[in-house]
Amino acid sequence: MTKGNVQGCVEDSDVSPRDLAARAAWLSFVGGMTQDQIAQELGISRQRAQRLVARASAEGLIRVRIDHPIARCLELERDLKDRFGLEAAWVSPGIGTGADPLIGLAPFVAPVLERFFEDTQSKTFALGTGRTLKTVVEHLRTVDGAHHKLVSLIGNVAPDGSASFYEVIMRFAEKTRAKHYPMSAPVSARDDAELVLYRSLPHVKASRALAKSADLAIVGIGQMGDDAPLYVDGFLTAEELTDLRAAGGVGEICGHIFDGAGRYLDHPVNHRMVGVQVPVQEMPVYCVAAGDSKLPALRAALGGGLLAGVFTDERTARDLISQ
Amino acid sequence: MTKGNVQGCVEDSDVSPRDLAARAAWLSFVGGMTQDQIAQELGISRQRAQRLVARASAEGLIRVRIDHPIARCLELERDLKDRFGLEAAWVSPGIGTGADPLIGLAPFVAPVLERFFEDTQSKTFALGTGRTLKTVVEHLRTVDGAHHKLVSLIGNVAPDGSASFYEVIMRFAEKTRAKHYPMSAPVSARDDAELVLYRSLPHVKASRALAKSADLAIVGIGQMGDDAPLYVDGFLTAEELTDLRAAGGVGEICGHIFDGAGRYLDHPVNHRMVGVQVPVQEMPVYCVAAGDSKLPALRAALGGGLLAGVFTDERTARDLISQ
DNA sequence: TCATGATATGGGCAAATGCTCAAATCTAAT
DNA sequence: ATTAGATTTGAGCATTTGCCCATATCATGA
C-alpha cells in the first residue's frame, strides 16, 4: 500500500505553497486524477488537495485554451475585416449573456499577444491603458520577450498625482521581461504652458519619439457616456464631458476624443494630452474592446479608419456588423 | 425568462458538432459555468452539455497548461544541464506513479515545440520517429509554421512494406503546415547493394542532405531490452538483438545502436540504416524520453554527448542524476 | 414501405467536488 | 510567556458531475 510521496516531492520541506498548488493542478488537469488520488499521491488530505487546485485556478496558474476555431467566430472575423478594411480581427466565443465580456475576451487575447512576443525579431510595441488591457495582461503567461521594447502611449500620472490605476506597461514588462519605457508624466496638462513643459522633458520626448516609431500599437477604447472612464477617473470635469459630447465626441483612444465618423475633435481637451495621438499612419493599431457600452466608440473608430485590427467578442462583433 | 440561444449560435443549423463541443468547453472552462447553465445558454439538455464538454476534452480541443515552473523541476533541469553539459533541459512534473509517463510528458513538451515553430525565422527541423514523438505531436496545437521545413531522419517503410506506424513527420506537418520531406524509403536495407541503391535515389539523397543541414533535430530514444522497439516492429531479428546486446548495445536513436558509453556500434545492423546517423556534430539534438525502461539508453546517450538537450519527466530526471 | 443496426437522448444514481463552519495552528506584539 | 488576530485544517453537507441504461431517432438496404 503506497502512501504517496513516491515522486520525492513533498518530503522536500522547502517546496513553496504555489509549487504544491501547481503540482496538484497538474495532477488534476493533466493527469486526470481525482482529488482523493491527488491527496494520496501528495500525502495530504482531500480537502487540502481541493484547496490547492482551487487556488491554482484562482491565482491563474492554469491556462485553459480551446484549440478549435469555432466556425461562427471565424466568419465574424472575416466579416469584420471585409467591412472595415482591417488587416486582422479576432473574435472570441461569447460567454453567457450579461456576464462581463472580458471574462471571455481576455483569456482569448492573451495567447495571441504571447505569440507577438515570442517572435525572435525585435519589435517595439506601443501600449495604451485601461481596464481592458489590464485584464488581458493578467492573462498573459510569462514569455521571454527581453529583446522587445514596450513604450507607453500615454502619461502615467492621474490628475490627483497618483499613478494611473490602469497602467499596463509595467505589468506587461513583468510578464515579457521586455525593456519598457513608461511615459512618466501626467496624462493631461492643465494648460498650454504645462504641456510645453512636460513635452520638453527629455524622458517624455524620448518616450513620445519611441512611441511614434513603434511597430505595433495595442490600445483599448473608451466610451463617452455618463460613466466615461475619462470622467470617472477625473481626467474630465462634468462640464467638459457635456461639452465634448455636444461637439460630437463618442469615444476616445488613449485620451484623444473622436466623433462618430472617427475624426479627432478640435477641442482643448484633446490638445492638452501629454501622450501621443495614436499614430495610425505610421503603424498598425490593434484595439481590444467588447461590450455594449463600447459599441458606438468602436464603430466610429473602425469606420473612421483609426484601427488596423480589432479583438472583440462574438456579441460585439455581431452588433458591429449588423449595422 | 431567457431560454438561451441569445448569442445567435445554436439556431444556425449548420454549426458542426465540434464547434458546439468547443463552445460548450469554452463556456465550461473559461466561463466557469455549470453544466446546467451551459445547457440553458445553448438551449440543450444538461446531459448533452456534459457530453459535449467530455467530447471536447477527449478530442483534444482543450489545452490545459500549468503556467508555474515548479521549483523542484527547475532544479532538476539545472542539474541535468550541469551534469551532462546540455544546452537545454525540460523536466515535466511527475504524473502519479505507475502511469504512462507520456501522459504528463507529451502535454508538457508540446507547447515548447510550438514555440520553436512560432519563430518567424525559417528553420529546418530534423525529426525521428517512435511512440513518444507521435504522442507529443498529438498534443501540438495548430501553429502557422509554413515557413519552416521538416525533414525525417529515418526511412518510413517497415520491413513488411507498410508505412512505419510511428512516423511523425506527416502529423507534424499537418499541425504546422510546414513543408515536409519524409524519407520515402525503407528504414533499413537488407544488404549493401540495396543500401547503395536506396541512398542513390534522388529523393533519398535530397532528404539525407537536408537532414544533415537541419538547424535542430528532435528525436526519441529506444531501449534494447526484450521488448526493444526495433525488435518488436520487426527491424531486428531475435538473433540480431542478442548479438547487439552482446556487443554492448544499450539504446538506439533513429535506429542507430550505441553502447553504454554512447558510442555507436560498428555492427552490420547500424551500417544498413538508410537514414542518417544523428549528426550531433552539425546541429543540436534534443531527445524526448521518459520511463524506467529508457533509463540506460538515455544515460548512455547523455554521457556520450549524443544529445544537446533533453525533455523528460521528474522521475526519470531524478534517476538520471542520482547516478 | 419496412426492418435493422447504429447513434443520440434524457432519467436516475453514485461518485466527485465545492463550500461553510468550527476547531486548531501559527504569528507577532506585549 | 501570553494573548489577540490571522491563517490553516478537516468534518459535514449541498451541489455538480460522470456514467449506465432504457428509449427514441436516424440512416441504410431489402
Q: Compute the average pLDDT of chain A.
A: 86
- Strand segment count of chain A: 11
From the coordinates shown, what is the CATH architecture of the largest domain in chain A? 3-Layer(aba) Sandwich
* Low-pLDDT segments of chain A: 1-14
Biggest sheet details of chain A: 7 strands, parallel
Shape, principal axes of CA atoms of chain A: globular
Strand order of the largest sheet of chain A: 2-11-10-6-3-4-5
- Total DSSP helices of chain A: 14
Into how many domains do the coordinates of chain A divide?
2
Q: How would you spell out the order of helices and strands of chain A?
A: HHHEHEHEHEHEHHEEHHEEHEHEH
Q: Look at the structure and give the CATH class of the largest domain in chain A.
A: Alpha Beta
Give the radius of gyration of chain A.
Answer: 22 Å
- Assembly state: homodimer
Characterize this entry briefly:
The structure is a homodimer of 323-residue chains. By secondary structure, chain A is an alpha/beta fold. Chain A has helices at 17-30, 35-42, 46-58, 71-84, 102-117, 131-138, 169-176, 192-200, 202-212, 229-232, 238-246, 268-271, 295-303, 314-321; strands spanning 62-66, 88-92, 124-127, 149-157, 179-186, 216-219, 222-223, 249-253, 256-259, 285-288, 309-313.
Structure description:
Two copies of one chain form a homodimer. By secondary structure, chain A is an alpha/beta fold. Chain A has two domains: 62 residues, Winged helix-like DNA-binding domain superfamily/Winged helix DNA-binding domain (Arc Repressor Mutant, subunit A), CATH 1.10.10.10; 251 residues, Rossmann fold (3-Layer(aba) Sandwich), CATH 3.40.50.1360. Chain A is 42% helix and 17% strand. Chain A is built from 14 helices and eleven strands. In chain A, strands 2-11-10-6-3-4-5 form a seven-stranded parallel beta sheet, sandwiched between helices. Chain A has a three-stranded antiparallel beta sheet with strand order 7-8-9. In chain A, strand 8 and strand 9 form a beta hairpin. In chain A, helix 4 crosses helix 14. Chain A starts with 16 loop residues before the first helix and ends with a helix. The N terminus of chain A is likely disordered. At the A-B interface, helix 1, strand 1, helix 5 and helix 14 of A face helix 1, strand 1, helix 5 and helix 14 of B. Strand 1 of chain A pairs antiparallel with strand 1 of chain B. Chain A binds a DNA duplex (30 and 30 nucleotides) through helix 3.
